[in-house]
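Lab channel / #folding
Pinned by the channel admin:
"Please post every new chain as: sequence first, then the structure tokens as a reply. Keep commentary short and put observations after the output so the thread stays searchable."

First post following the new format, from NK:
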Amino acid sequence: MTENRDAVCKAEYEPPADELEEVLAAVIAEVLDVDQVGRRDSFYDLGGASLSAIRICARVERRLGIRVDPAWLLEHDELADFAEQIRLGAA
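Reply from TO:
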């Protein structure tokens, strides 16, 4: 059963700001089985752990064709920060 994001997140919902954030939000929601993921939602609050970080990064790589290190998500656990790290890493 899909978890309601509001039941597990402390942050007020802020929608993804661009296409990269939309892709990341969709993948994270799919892997962690939550209804939606906002820009300031913590991967950990949503139930994320190291194995789910690996799954998320593998799916993002397949969808976007760029290398995504799971450590980036583990260290930058908010969606907006993770997206920024991907931008920096892809540059």
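NK: The mean pLDDT is 93.
TO: also worth noting, The radius of gyration is 12 Å.
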